[in-house]
Amino acid sequence: MFDFAIIGAGIGGSVVASILNHLGYSVALFEKLEYLCGCAGTFRRKGYYFNVGAATFVGLDGNLPLAKLKKLLNLDFPVVKIDPSLKIYIKDKTINRYQDKNMAFEEIQKAFYDKNNQKFWSTIYNTSDIIWDMLYDFLPQQSNLPDVNLIFRAFKHIDKIIKIAPYFFKNARAYALQTLNSLDKDYERFLSYHTLITAQGFLDEVNVGVASLGLTYPNLDNYYVIGGMDKACEAFVKNLKHVFRRTTVQKIRSYEDRFVLETSAGEFEAKNIVLNKTIFDLHELFDDPYIKEFSFKSQKTFSKKWGAFTMYFMVDDIFDKDFEYHHFILLDEEIPFTKSKSIFLSISAKEDSILSIENKRSITISTHSTIDEWFGLEKEEYKRRKKVVENFIIDRLHKYIPILKDAKLYNVESGTPLTFKRYTSRYMGSVGGIPVINEYFFKYPRPISPIKGVYLVGDTVFPGQGWPGVSLGAINLAKIIDKNFKL
Ligand SMILES: Cc1cc2nc3c(=O)[nH]c(=O)nc-3n(C[C@H](O)[C@H](O)[C@H](O)COP(=O)(O)OP(=O)(O)OC[C@H]3O[C@@H](n4cnc5c(N)ncnc54)[C@H](O)[C@@H]3O)c2cc1C
Description:
- With about 475 residues, this protein is an alpha/beta fold.
- The chain has 3 domains: about 1-80 and about 225-305 and about 435-480, FAD/NAD(P)-binding domain, CATH 3.50.50.60; about 85-220, no CATH class; about 305-425, no CATH class.
- It has 15 helices and 19 strands.
- The chain has helices at about 10-20, 65-75, 100-110, 115-135, 150-155, 160-170, 170-180, 185-200, 210-215, 230-235, 290-300, 380-400, 415-425, 440, 465-480, and strands spanning about 1-5, 25-30, 40-45, 50, 55-60, 80, 85-90, 95, 220-225, 240-245, 250-255, 260-265, 265-275, 305-315, 325-335, 340-345, 360-370, 410-415, 455.
- The strands form 4 sheets. Strands 1, 2, 10, 11, 12, 13 and 19 form a 7-stranded mixed beta sheet that branches. A 7-stranded mixed beta sheet has the order 8-7-15-16-17-14-18, with helices on both faces.
- Helix 3 packs antiparallel against helix 4 (about 115-135).
- Flavin-adenine dinucleotide binds near residues 13, 53 and 467.
């Protein structure tokens, strides 16, 4: 019998499995797909490899979760540092998001001159620095209720808290309007799409604290993962003895002293369970009425959910070595059937011998998408909508990144929320977790389920998505499980 059975090897499952293994627990990790890392994985199609969605790996330096975990677990990631982390296109402007804060600021000032920009961005930079600096002292967090220990821990940082308190909870758009001389549509879109891709909420939906983390992610150290993003999860699980790939957990029965997992590879027993499924999907695995109620209630409480429309193709390598890895196009108009106005393109590195082969490079494109537009359609209508979105995206790519016009595309495929549902089993194909918006800020779910011994990890049970947020959530869970775990 294992101490812990972990269901799902997304970022959350892989990271927490690795920490628990390091702490001396026996761990079994179950993943239904053939590759690890879920939404941050890499899949193979017709001989070529593509990143599923996530393509930026953030934070191996300083005080970030991955830096701490790398040291603790002695991990080696196959990465190259990238700078600028992102190239943004808006109308006729291009803005490089450099890591260096002064260089980054100059780019912003050049594109959106405002005499109060310095004041605005100083607040944003200071706030995010302070949050990263004191974050670990606020863990573990296992409840949304006020916690006496938390107040003691907060006291240690009282000087910093006093500094950011006046604006931390302010609406980020209101703060920008109040601080900047003017906030035109383009500048607002620039700010807003940073918060959308990090916190899943537009500028007017998030507070200044959350916005500061989203707006400064390009100033953290950003990396390209050689061989595909799944290699980052592979690095985490390399010391685990029991990783069951292509093994779906179908049902979990709970007994007084153990859990029995019914899987596609037979039955397994464990003393505890960690679910790396979204909070909305837990009801599928248990007959327990409390879990079912908890899961169904969460679906309603957190009704704002995003999906993604993704495109994958290979392209003739006509790009020079300095061609940026990540391109973010901000549009005036909505992409059909998505309610999104942005296109994020990531290209594989020239020197990546797994993703870039046959003198071609692998491209993953993503945009936020509403979910409703993709479910309950006749097959023909579903196909038609996909084609409309594909054509729209290709057309805008040609307009904003003209070199793509000269490059032949191969094996163009696209994915919708339905595709994400099929592969990752996420509720309605929703991705990116529960938005960290003001409406949900104090309601955000925690990693504890109604059943003793059943824990949760992933982007719907800790406020923060992607590598930094989900790995921090895994650290939080490990601290809840083992009070002696310090990081
Ligand atoms: C298009 C897109 C682009 C993104 N870009 C970035 C980026 O550049 N950088 C970044 O850091 N983040 C990015 N993100 C966010 C990031 O990918 C996610 O927040 C993160 O990967 C979520 O991890 P998770 O562990 O919560 O869950 P998931 O990735 O959903 O992992 C859950 C895993 O559980 C498995 N599973 C489910 N049910 C079962 C079962 N019954 N039995 C066994 N296994 C099961 C699934 O197959 C999956 O592998 C992006 C997300 C998307 C969708």
